[in-house]
Recover the amino acids of this structure.
């Protein structure tokens, strides 16, 4: 079966750095997405990786290793507004998105 | 403002009633999706449509039906609601070139 694993919950301190990991086992691979979802709101797009390596976008970076079935989302200079759930999703060989359950990130002052 | 509009935002209905959740997009995306999101679970695909006139079943299609008469509209119907269909429902469309999903604000449905 297809599977996406990410930690259920993480806690970090305002101003610090946090890394959210995602491992996947899917039927084929056509890209990995990270979405942010604040409580009670819709998910919003953060990043997309299809090739190995690091993609940087401001305070957020996303890394992909296809050989290891692994990605991480790196958040720097954490702000209170970064408290949210972070969803990892992989597009399989049929171009269907497989979603992880999400990581709830709690930021403490 | 371009995007996806869902209605209603929230609804409480009695078991056995019929309910249609509406979804409209103005981005001219070909592909549209309906997901449900339950606490502790990832987004689960109910039905999808790759283009107007076609639909397909997702991971959890039982008890739901969809139609795609045109590019913009993708309604989801619960023919006879059951309590296990209590959930938050998200409609989404995807950019044809990047695959990025755009979500509606969600419809919170409670079936009693």
């Amino acid at each position: 079966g297809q599977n996406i694993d990410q930690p259920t919950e993480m806690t970090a301190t305002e101003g610090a750095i946090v890394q959210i990991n995602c491992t996947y086992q899917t039927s084929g691979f056509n890209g990995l997405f990270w979405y942010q979802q604040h409580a009670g709101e819709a998910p919003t797009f953060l990043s997309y990786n299809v090739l190995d390596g690091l993609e940087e976008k401001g305070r957020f970076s996303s890394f992909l290793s296809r050989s290891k079935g692994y990605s991480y989302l790196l958040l720097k200079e954490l702000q209170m507004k970064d408290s949210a759930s972070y969803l990892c999703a992989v597009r399989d060989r049929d171009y269907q998105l497989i979603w992880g359950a999400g990581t709830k990130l709690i930021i403490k002052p | 403002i371009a995007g996806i509009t869902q209605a209603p935002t929230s609804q409480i209905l009695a078991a056995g009633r019929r309910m249609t959740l509406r979804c409209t997009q103005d981005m001219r995306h070909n592909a549209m999706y309906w997901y449900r999101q339950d606490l502790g679970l990832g987004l689960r695909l109910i039905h999808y449509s790759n283009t107007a006139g076609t639909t397909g079943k997702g991971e959890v299609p039982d008890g739901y039906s969809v139609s795609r008469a045109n590019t913009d509209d993708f309604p989801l119907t619960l023919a006879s609601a059951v309590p296990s269909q209590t959930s938050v429902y998200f409609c989404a469309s995807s950019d044809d070139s990047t695959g990025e999903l755009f979500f509606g604000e969600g419809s919170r449905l409670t079936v009693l």
User: Anything to note?
Assistant: Chain A has no helices and eleven strands. The interface with chain B takes residues 4, 8, 30-31, 33, 35, 41-45, 48, 87, 89, 91, 95-97, 99-102 of chain A (CB under 8 Å).
